[in-house]
Amino acid sequence: MASQKMYNPYKEQRYALFTLHGSIVDDIFIGVMFSVAWSVLITALYEVLHINLAIPAQIITILSFVASLILAFRTNTAYERFIEARRVWGTMTVAIRNLARLAWIHSKEDPKVADLIEKKTIINLLLAYAIATKHYLRYEFGTEHKDLKYLLGDFPSHINTELVQVDSAPALRRRNLPFFHMSHPDNVRLVPKIATALEDNNQATPDNIPLQITFLISAWINHQTKATRIDVPTTNGMMNAINSMVECLTTFERILRTPMPAAYSIQLAHTVWIYLIALPFQLVSTFHWITLVVVAIAAFTLLGFEAIGKEIENPFGYDPNDMPLDDLCDVIRNELEVLTSTTSPGNVETWIFSKLNKPFHSSEFSAVELKKQNVNLVRQLYVDDVNFASKAKGNDHGLSHSEHTIIELPVTGGTSEQANESEKAKADEIKVNEPELRH
C-alpha cells in the first residue's frame, strides 16, 4: 500500500493574513465596490456641489446594532451546522471502525477461501458506505463514481440505479434541487430512480445508496448469526454500529435539507445593505473624502461575515471552507486497508508468545523464553518493572541500555539441588522486595 501525504488542516492558517485561498474576497468584491462607488457619489455631492446630505448619527447607531445582532446570530447558526456535521462524521467513523473490528476479528473464520472473501466484501462495503455518503450529500447520485464502483462490484444489480429525467420527479425537484428551474428544457437532468411504489405516481427519489448498503451489511450479519459464526454480544455490537450509521446518515440529511429560512436570509441582506447605503450620509460631514475608506472597511466586514454564513451553512460541497470529505474518506480507506492487509489476530499465541514480544522493560528476554521459567521469577520481573518505571520518570531522557536491570534467566536442565537453591534464592529476594513494592 502506497504511503499518502498526511492532510494538515491547519497549514493555511499559519499565514492567514496573507492567504487568499479559502477567503470570501471574490464573493464580496462586487458588493464592496458598489458600496465604495455609492460613497464616492455622496461625498462628491457634499464636497463638490456643496449639497448638505448629512444625517444624524442616531439612525446609523440603531441600524448598526440591529445588523450586528443579526449577523452574529447568522454566523453562529451556520457554524453550529458545520461543527455538528463534523461531529456526526466522527460518530459515523467510530461506527465503521467498530463494525470492521467485529467483522474481521469476532466472526468465526473457517480455513476456507469463501470466509475470507466474505470478510473482505463486508470491509469493502463499509468503505463504500463512507464514500457513498460523501457523494449522496453532494447530490452525486448513482454508483458509477470512480472511487465507489470498484467497491460495490456486482451489488449495483441489487441497487436500482436506472436514470430518469428530473421532470418526471417533481418531489425530487422540490426537495433536492431548489435552484433548478424546469422552464428551461435544456436543463433537464438525469438522476437515479429507486424501485419503489412512487413510480406508480410518476414520482422518483434518488437512490439512497448509503442506506441500501446498510441493508446488505445487515443481511450478512443475519446470515452469520444463523450460521452461529458470531455470538449474541457480537451481533448486538454489530447492530448497534449499523443503527449508529443510519442515525448519522439521517442527521446529515437534516443538516443538508434544512437551510436557513428564506425570510431570515432576505431580511438580513436588506438590513445590511440599508446600513451600507445610509452610512456615507452620516460620515461625510466628519470624514469628508476619508468616508470612502471607512465605508469600504465597513462593507468588507459586514458583507464578509454574511458570505461566511452562507458558505459554511452547507458543509458538504467542494468549497475550501467545506468539510474535507475526500480526505476524511481517505482516512477510513487507509485504516481498512491496513486491517485487511494482515491476518486476523484471533490466535493470540502467534503474537503474545513471540520472540519479538518483550513484555518486561527491565528484562531483555522474550515471551518465548520467559514462558519456560517458573512463576516466582516472572513475578519478580513485575517488581523490577515498577522500579524501572520510577527511575525512568526521574530521568527526562529515559534510561540508557547500560542502566537497564538485566535479569539472567536460570539455566534449565541442571541438577535438582541447583534448581532448588536457585528457587530458594529468588524466593528470599522477593520477600526482601515486598515492602518496597507495597510502598
TrEMBL record:
Identify the main location: membrane
User: TM segments?
Assistant: 15-41, 53-73, 262-281, 287-305
* UniProt region (Disordered), positions on chain: 410-439
Regions of biased composition (Basic and acidic residues) lie at 421-439
The record gives the membrane topology as: Multi-pass membrane protein
**Gene Ontology terms, MF aspect:** chloride channel activity
What keywords is this UniProt entry annotated with?
Cell membrane, Ion transport, Membrane, Transmembrane, Transmembrane helix, Transport
Q: Which InterPro entries match?
A: YneE/VCCN1/2-like
Q: Origin, by domain of life?
A: Eukaryota
Q: Which GO terms describe its cellular component?
A: plasma membrane
Give compartment(s): Cell membrane
Output this protein's name.
Bestrophin, RFP-TM, chloride channel-domain-containing protein
* UniProt source species: Jimgerdemannia flammicorona
Q: What is the lineage of its organism?
A: Eukaryota, Fungi, Fungi incertae sedis, Mucoromycota, Mucoromycotina
